[in-house]
């Protein structure tokens, strides 16, 4: 579960930072339309912005687009350090039965070599661990990785 250091900065706040910077596309799937907690989610990584590629001073407070201002969590500004924290806090959602899972995709033009150094520890923390899969699942996963290209 997500425990915010600042209650004005929710999971939605952090997910939106990643979306408006065109870093990640999120998609949440629900068991049915009455559920408020997603059963599972996907995210496609488009890019990870390094400090040298951030278009503003790293400490400059930026505002969310006006279209989002009606929601209270978007009345708080953000900066590059919130962007970095968003990579950790955006994925800390959980269903009541603790069954929520994430499926990670990389956009076809994503280049790890252009990512900042802090992304490697992030990937090591959140990335997949195939060793926990049964052998037949590991083989299927290899086929999936080779053949599947997400279309969202």
UniProtKB/TrEMBL annotation:
Domain of life the protein comes from: Eukaryota
Bilayer-spanning residue ranges: 102-120
UniProt KW keywords: Membrane, Transmembrane, Transmembrane helix
PANTHER family the UniProt entry points to: (RAPE) HYPOTHETICAL PROTEIN
Protein name: Uncharacterized protein
Species this protein is from: Eutrema salsugineum
Lineage of origin: Eukaryota, Viridiplantae, Streptophyta, Embryophyta, Tracheophyta
């Amino acid at each position: 579960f997500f425990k915010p250091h600042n209650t004005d900065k929710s999971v939605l706040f952090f997910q939106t930072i990643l979306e408006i910077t065109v870093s990640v596309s999120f998609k949440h799937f629900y068991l049915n339309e009455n559920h408020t907690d997603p059963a599972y989610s996907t995210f496609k990584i488009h890019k990870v912005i390094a400090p040298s590629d951030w278009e503003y001073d790293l400490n400059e407070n930026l505002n969310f687009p006006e279209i989002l201002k009606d929601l209270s969590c978007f009345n708080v500004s953000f900066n590059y350090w919130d962007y970095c924290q968003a990579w950790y806090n955006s994925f800390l959602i959980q269903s009541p039965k603790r069954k929520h899972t994430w499926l990670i995709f990389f956009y076809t033009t994503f280049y790890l070599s252009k990512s900042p150094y802090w992304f490697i520890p992030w990937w090591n923390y959140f990335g997949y661990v195939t060793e926990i899969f049964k052998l037949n699942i590991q083989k299927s996963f290899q086929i999936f990785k080779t053949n599947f290209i997400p279309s969202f």
